[in-house]
């Protein structure tokens, strides 16, 4: 009979994001108020709230532009189990796409050059040395996202939707564990919105986590299973989207009478 002790179980991977009691002040204004949240690797999650809810400030804590106010007993402010990160080192964990980034890429560089710049966290290639392996990875991503036709097109000649898909490609060059999207469908027309949604669904199906920060209910792709509602710098609801996306909760957050309708995995708001 084997009397030896069973091996200790392998330690679980730390959460991708772990916050507890995060309060952020900008000058004399409290922009985040006692936020607590845990996001696991592989989760598809949406953070939904009106303009001014604190969503952009929350993103700035992830990119380490904002830091929490210290409190008695300390705060939990970790990404992948670590309290301190250099932003450059976060690229292998989180690919970030925002409107601010897109504005900075209004340059006369090609789509392929924009994707390659993700290896250097730069806006363009300048004098960086691009290796054959980098070129192969960039071309693989362009094919995966079905944007080979943007390979040689200057960013200045792309539509908003085309440029956004290129920047998603830039964010994916390091195979991040999650893609963080800040108001991703702003300024997209119906055709661009349809194409963009299809792109996100393909990325989610391939195993990359989606963290969507938005004020648009229709941004929430069917693969997203968890929704956090945000208002006045606080998280006011967090759970399965079926429980969170209700008339009462959405109406309360946006302060408008609303009827939530579900259709083939998508959620829509009517009646306001």
Structural account:
- This protein has eight helices and eleven strands.
- It is 27% helix and 25% strand.
- The mean pLDDT is 90.
- The protein has helices at residues 55-62, 99-104, 111-116, 132-144, 160-171, 190-205, 241-244, 247-254; strands at residues 17-26, 29-39, 44-48, 76-79, 94-97, 178-182, 209-214, 226-231, 234-240, 259-263, 266-270.
- A hairpin with a 2-residue loop joins strand 10 (259-263) and strand 11 (266-270).
Summarize the structure.
With about 270 residues, the protein is α/β, with parallel strands linked by helices. The chain has eight helices and eleven strands.
Q: How many strands in all?
A: 11
Number of helices: 8
Low-pLDDT residue spans: none
Distance between the termini: 71 Å
Mean pLDDT: 90
* Helix proportion: 25-40%
Strand order of the largest sheet: 5-6-7-3-8-9
Task: Please state the CA-atom Rg, rounded to the nearest Å.
Answer: 20 Å
Shape: globular
Give the topology string: H per helix, E per strand.
EEEHEEHHHHEHEEEHHEE
Structural class: alpha/beta
Major sheet summary line: 6 strands, mixed
The proportion of residues in beta strands is: 25-35%
């Amino acid at each position: 009979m084997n009397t030896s002790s069973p091996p200790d179980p392998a330690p679980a991977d730390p959460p991708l994001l772990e916050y507890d009691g995060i309060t952020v002040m900008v000058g004399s204004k409290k922009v985040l108020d006692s936020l607590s949240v845990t996001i696991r690797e592989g989760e598809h999650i949406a953070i939904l709230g009106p303009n001014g809810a604190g969503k952009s400030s929350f993103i700035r804590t992830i990119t380490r532009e904002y830091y929490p106010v210290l409190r008695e007993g300390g705060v939990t402010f970790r990404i992948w189990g670590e309290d301190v990160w250099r932003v450059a080192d976060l690229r292998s964990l989180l690919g970030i796409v925002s409107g601010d980034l897109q504005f900075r890429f209004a340059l006369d560089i090609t789509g392929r050059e924009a994707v390659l710049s993700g290896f250097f966290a730069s806006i363009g290639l300048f004098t960086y040395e691009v290796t054959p392996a980098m070129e192969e990875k960039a071309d693989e991503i362009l094919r995966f996202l079905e944007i080979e036709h943007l390979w040689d097109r200057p960013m200045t000649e792309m539509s908003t939707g085309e440029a956004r898909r290129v920047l998603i490609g830039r964010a994916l060059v390091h195979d991040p564990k999650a893609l963080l999207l800040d108001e991703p469908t702003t300024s997209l027309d119906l055709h661009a919105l349809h194409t963009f949604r299809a792109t996100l669904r393909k990325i989610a199906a391939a195993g990359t986590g989606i963290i969507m920060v938005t004020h648009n209910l229709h941004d929430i792709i069917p693969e997203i299973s968890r929704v956090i509602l945000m208002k006045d710098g606080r998280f006011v609801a967090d759970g399965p989207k079926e429980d969170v996306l209700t008339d009462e909760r959405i109406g309360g957050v946006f302060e408008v009478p609303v009827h939530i309708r579900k259709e083939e995995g998508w959620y829509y708001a009517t009646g306001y």
